[in-house]
């Protein structure tokens, strides 16, 4: 059973009375800033991964640190 328009309006009025219009708009502004920061971070991540050099390319000075399994005789 879906909520009727009256139930939605009553809940909306209660939320406005409890939190006030200023606090709700402040929370929505914070959510919008968070979304913008997330999108900017994703764009920065995309640009940084395309500009990085892959391991094993010519001129790579990286050292292979793959762990080796050696057994010691006791």
SSE pattern: H
| Biggest sheet details | none
Structural category: mainly alpha
Strand percentage lies at: under 5%
Total strands: the figure is 0
Rg on CA atoms, Å: 27 Å
Helical fraction equals 55-70%
- What is the terminal separation in angstroms? 72 Å
Number of H/I helices: 1
Low-pLDDT residue intervals, each spanning 5 or more residues: none
| Overall residue-averaged pLDDT value | 77
Quaternary state reads: single chain
Global outline? elongated
What does this structure look like?
The chain contains one helix and no strands. It has 74 residues and is mainly α. It starts with a helix and ends in a 23-residue tail after the last helix. The mean pLDDT is 77.
Describe the structure in brief:
By secondary structure, the protein is mostly helical. 64% of the residues lie in helices and 0% in strands. It is built from one helix and no strands.
Considering the chains and any ligands shown, give keywords for the structure:
single chain, 74 residues, mainly alpha
Helix and strand arrangement:
Layout: H1 5-51
């Amino acid at each position: 059973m879906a909520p009727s328009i009256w139930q939605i309006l009553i809940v909306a009025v209660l939320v406005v009375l409890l939190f006030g219009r200023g606090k709700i708009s402040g929370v929505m502004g914070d959510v919008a800033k968070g979304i913008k920061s997330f999108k900017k971070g994703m764009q920065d991540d995309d640009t940084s991964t395309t500009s990085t050099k892959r391991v094993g390319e010519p001129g790579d000075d990286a050292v292979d640190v793959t762990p080796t399994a050696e057994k010691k005789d006791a």
